[in-house]
Amino acid sequence: MAPKPVTSPVPVQWYPALSALLLVGGLFFTAFFFIYEATSSTRNRSLAKEVVIAAVASTFLGFGSLFLLLATGVYV
Amino acid sequence: MAMVSRFAFFLLWISVLSSTTHSELVISRIDRRVDLSSHIVRALFSMKVENVGSKVVSEVLLAFPNMQAKNLAAIKTLYNEGRGKVKASSVSLPTAVVEPEGMPPELTFYSVSLPKGLEKGGTVSLDVLAVFAHSLQPFPEEITQADGQLVVYQDSAYYLSPYTVKVQTLGIRLPGGRVESYTKFPNAKLVDSEITYGPFENLPAFSYSPVIVHFENNYPFAVAHELVREIEISHWGNVQITEHYNLVHGGAKTKGGFSRLDYQARSSVRGASSFSHLIFRLPPRAHSIYYRDEIGNISTSHFWGDSRKTQLEIEPRFPIFGGWKTSFTIGYGLPLQDFLFKVDGKRMLNITFGSPMDEVIVDNLIVKVVLPEGSNGISASVPFPTKQGEEIKYSHLDIVGRPVLVLEKSNVVPEHNLYFQVYYHFNNLSLLGEPMMLISGFFLLFVACIVYMHTDMSISKSSASYLAKIQLEEVQATVQQIQNIINQCLAVHDKLDASLRDLSRTGDVQSCKIARKTADAQLKELVKELKPLVTFLHHSPQASHIWPKVEELVAKEKDMQEKMFLRHSTVVDCFEKKLGGREIENRVASQQQKLAALRQEVDDLLEFLDEI
Lengths: 76, 612
Known about the structure:
The complex is a heterodimer of chains A (76) and B (612). With 76 residues, chain A is mainly α. Chain A contains two helices and one strand. The longest helix of chain A has 25 residues, at 15-39. Chain A is elongated, with a radius of gyration of 17 Å. With 612 residues, chain B is an alpha+beta fold. Chain B contains eight helices and 32 strands. In chain B, α5 runs antiparallel to α8 (581-611). Chain B starts with a helix and ends with a helix. At the A-B interface, β1, α1 and α2 of A face β26, β27, α4 and α5 of B. β1 of chain A pairs antiparallel with β26 (340-343) of chain B.
C-alpha cells in the first residue's frame, strides 16, 4: 500500500472563520443561559433546561476556543 | 616527540605484520581525495579491489588509525555496478566496525560486505566516503582578533590498508588561503591549493608515511556542543520543530581583547576567523519561524522561500570568535501532509534527522519526536545506529501526556541529514480529547453557576427576613405562573380569531365550531390551573401590593373570554343565516372595539407585572 499523506480533519485555512463563528454562537448561548438564570424565579427554573443550554453553550465555546488556539498557532 | 615515538611504534608493528599477513585481496588502484576546504574533513577513496587468492571473498577491510577513527563521524561505501566509465546505479553497501584477529590494536577496522562474493581474479570498484569531525587541529591554539586561523591536518601519504596496494595517489584540497608548510616527502606537489602525493606503486600492506599540512582555514568552525531537536506532531495539521542550539566556535581560541571598533571598520581582516551569520536550509513551506534566546527575540534574521526550499539566515547577537559560545533557539512549523503518511493502518513520520544548518558538527544530537497523546506501538527506523529511549511530555490539554521517542547520536555531520521514519498507531477519535477537555471546562463553569443559583446559602433558616424572602420568591413564582397562563389564554384567543378569519375566507362553519370547542376546553383547563394560584396570591400578605393588579388582570381576561365567545357565536350565526360580509362587520364592530380595548389593558397589566 502506497503511503497516503495524512491531513488535518478540517482544512487549516478554515480555522479563523470557524473559531469566530463558533465563539459567537457560544457567547450567544452563554448570554441566553445567564439571562435565563437571572430572570426566572427560583421555583419556576427547570434544571433540565439549564443543563441543556449549558451543554450547548459549552460545546460551542469548547470547539470555538480549540479552533482559536489552532488558528493562533498553538497546535494542541 | 610523542607523535614520533608513536610512528616508530607503528612502523615496528607494520614490519611484524607485513611478513605475516597473507591476504587474498590486492588493491590494484586507489585514488584518495581529501577535502579540507571546510572544517569537516571529507575523504573519498575510489578503489579497485582484486582477488588474487583462490577463495571467494565477501568482505573488504578498511583500516583507520585509532586517532582518525575516533573522529570518524560517517562512513559510506558505494558499489558501482557499471564497468569502466559508465557508472550505472551505485548501491550503498553495509559498512560496520569489526575486530579481526591478529591485527594491531592501533587500528580500527571497518568491514564492507560485498553484495556477491568476489571470485578468484575478479575485481570490484568501491567508493568510500569517510567524514571526519574535529580533525583539523588549530595551530597555534590561540590567536588574536587580527590573525588568520591556521590549522594542522595529519594523514598518511600511503594508504594504510591490510592489503598490498599496487598504484595509489593522494590529493588534498585546501581552502585556498596561505599554506604555512606541508610534508614534501614523499613526492609531493602543491598546485593551486591542492597538494598531490604519488603516484606510488607496489607498496606492502600497512605502509605508512606521515603527512602534515599546516594551512590557513577561516571557514566558520561552527560546532554545536548540544542540539536538541524537538519534532512535535499535531494531527490538527502541523509539525512543529524547535531546535535548541548550544553553539561554539571550534577553531583556535581567541586571545587578547576584542575591539569592536577594529571589527566594525575592517571585519574581513580584523575578524577573519570569526563568523557572524549562519544559514539554515529548511524544508519548503516552513512557516511561523522564530529565532530567540533566553532574553527574547533576536531580530537579526533574514528569510527567503520558494516552492522548493526555505532559507533562513540568522545573525547571533555578537560575532563568534574562537572558543566563544552562544545559545539560541529556532522554531518553525511545517505542514502535516508533507511529513506524515498512513501506511498499512500505521502513521509514518518521514523527516530529516540532522540539523538544517549548513556545515555544522553536532557533538551530541538529541532528536525528540513528540507524538500526539494516545499514540502507541511506536517504532523508529533510522539509517544509522542511534541510542533510543522513550519519555513522556506534558503539553497543552494533556491528561496522560504525550509519548516522546528520544533518539541520541554523537558526532553528527551534515551527511547524517537523512530521512528517518517513526511508525505509530493512532486512533482519530483521540483527536476529540482536546476539544472534550475544553468543553468540560466550560461546562463545569456553567454547572458551578447552576449550583450557585440553586443552593440556599443563608445561615439562619428561621429568621424573619429569610422567611419573608422565601415568601416573596413564592409570590414571584406564582405571579410568573399566572402571567404564563394568561399568555397562553391570549394565544388561545388568537387562535379563535384566526378561525374566524378562516371562516370569512372559506365559509366552513363546521371547522370553526370545532375550533371554538377546543378553545373552550383549553381555556377551561387554564382557568382551572389559574384558580389555586390566584387564591394563594389573594391570601399571601407579601402579595398585597400587586394583588389588585393581578385581580384586575384575571377579571379582564375573563371578560375578554366572554366577549370573544360572544363575538364568535355572533359571527357564526350570521354566517349560518347567510348574511353579507358588511352586515356581519356592522354587527360585531362594537364588540371588536371592546375586545381591542380589553386586549390593550391586559397587555399593559402584563407589562406592569413584568416590571415588578
